[in-house]
UniProtKB/TrEMBL annotation:
Entry annotated with the keyword Coiled coil: yes
Gene Ontology annotations of biological process type: exocytosis; Golgi to plasma membrane transport
Ranges for domain Exocyst complex component Sec10 N-terminal: 29-137
Keyword Coiled coil: yes
Protein's gene: Exoc5
Protein name per its UniProtKB record: Exocyst complex component 5
GO CC list: exocyst
Coiled-coil ranges from the UniProt annotation: 40-78
Chain ranges of the Exocyst complex component Sec10-like alpha-helical bundle domain: 148-699
Family to which this protein belongs: Belongs to the SEC10 family.
Matches recorded under PANTHER family: EXOCYST COMPLEX COMPONENT 5, SEC10
Keywords, in A-Z order: Coiled coil, Exocytosis, Transport
Amino acid sequence: EPFVADEYIERLAWRTPGGGSRGGEAFDPKRLLEEFVNHIQELQVMDERIQRKVEKLEQQCQKEAKEFAKKVQELQKSNQVAFQHFQELDEHISYVATKVCHLGDQLEGVNTPRQRAVEAQKLMKYFNEFLDGELKSDVFTNSEKIKEAADIIQKLHLIAQELPFDSLMDFCCYPLSSPGKYHDLECQLIQEFTSAQRRGEISRMREVAAVLLHFKGYSHCVDVYIKQCQEGAFLRNDVFEDAAILCQRVNKQVGEVFSNPETVLAKLIQNIFEVKLQSYVKDQLEEYRKSDAEQYLKNLYDLYTRTTNLSSKLMEFNLGTDKQTFLSKLIKSIFIPYLENYIEVEIGYLKSRSAMILQRYYDSKNHQKRSIGTGGIQDLKERIRQRTNLPLGPSIDTHGETFLSQEVVVNLLQETKQAFERCHRLSDPSDLPKNAFRIFSMLVEFLCTEHIDYALETGLAGIPSSDSKNANLYFLDVVHQANTIFHLFDKQFNDHLMPLISSSPKLSECLQKKKDIIEQMEVKLDMGIDTLNCMIGQMKHILAAEQKKTDFKPEDENNVLIQYTNACVKVCGYVRKQVEKIRNSMDGKNVDTVLMELGVRFHRLIYEHLQQYSYSCMGGMLAICDVAEYRKCAKDFKIALVLQLFDTLHALCNLLVVAPDNLKQVCSGEQLANLDKNILHSFVQLRVDYRSARLARHFS
């Protein structure tokens, strides 16, 4: 621990009797001083002793340092001597090695011809046995030496192949170059390989395969291996899973048996594709190709998907340099007969299926789909009929049916979605945008034209004339459903079509086609705006039936108990229902546009309606109450212009009850100051007391 003088003094004083107040002892400074003096003397003695010891150790250290330096110098000299000896030894070893290499080359030059001569002598000996027709050597008679025999036969066969045919006949060694011993031995080796494979002896298989590598029958050996690998491998219903498991198992084994495992595995995969898979695909597709297009397309998509998934799994194995191209060619060889005309089958099925869905729906409604003209004359007749009351033919009674079905739309979109998925998977990349556009055209034809457009045309033809009583305005229901359906159509366009055409010239073509469809529908929806005429007509009928002249000129001015007229209550109730219906049927800016148009027409109707009556003082008050209720109804439109119009109308109605002396003041108010004086005059003229000279004088 580090030395602290203060603590050391404290401990010394604490141990000295009389040095502190412990135990009740009195403090004795003399005794403490004496103790300090004695302790200082002890420390001085100890310091001198330690100093002498330090000096002694320093002298000893200097002596040992000199001895160590001397020893290091001696070792350096010894090291230099050893290094010189090592260099000399290295030069000597290099000299000897050179001599040994030279001697080895000389020995090899002598030994190689000798070995060749020995081998040639052995071959000549075996050649003589073939000439004599008796194979006596142990290598030919001992079945355990089939490897050595194969090597000999292979060499003799090569020699025989180089000799002319006449020489072979002269030497009677024709069996060496024909299906003789060579082929017999080759068959024995293949048989041995087959037996070893059945027994699961990998080492023996590897040994025999190495021998057969130099024989012509090596490829037959590979074929036998591939054939036996597949025995019992395809027992389940899922041929693709069986193929994946088989290839995974063979991939682990083939490297232990053959020197070229990637070639063997590739040949196995090729055999599986060209035999097993091709046969399976053909059985699954040919059955439905002409009889059931739906099942055919489903099977084609499923089989192609499972085949490509299998190909992805096989990509993990070593199949050579360009395995992607290899597997793609195998898949193409299987499916090319079916993919060439895929899109024609797809379009034909989609067309018939969509037509069937629509026809089934119309049949369920007991509706015979009629041809509705969309040309100039028909449009002109419709517009004249709806904007006037001329009887140009009756409107079509749809009995409240919109002829739009969510179920039909979902079915059509589902069929198209599946078609897009099949198109993405089965089409060639270069044909994908073109094929996707054809499918999109089918969707446009049957969903947009044959279903939505037909419903809009039927709805337009079913709009009643403005003078019809109790007319049911089903066209807004058509608009509502058409709007919902088109949102679904637009979602499928973005989710399923756009990814297929986003990077091709077909994108602009599809967008233009979609734009044309929207514009065509908007034209029909704009034509349907004349539904507002029917609404205004209904309001006219209500006002004509419910409003009485005595409402605004009661017989007893002092006995009026109602807050507003019955006609006002019914009109406001009707308007609120129509506003809610419009909001539910449309979205976006279309809602505001239609409500503004309806609000302006509603104001015009009430304005003209009020002009038809004369007003007493109490009747004018009742008219103001009616207009206040109309203004409250106008607030539901949430259109500033409409509310402003009714505010002005309410201010005009004040002219019906204001005192004659205040007329000029009211007319110069904020809401009436900018109005034409004729309008103000027309309202003042509605007063019962207008003929009085006082009122005429004040207003003039």
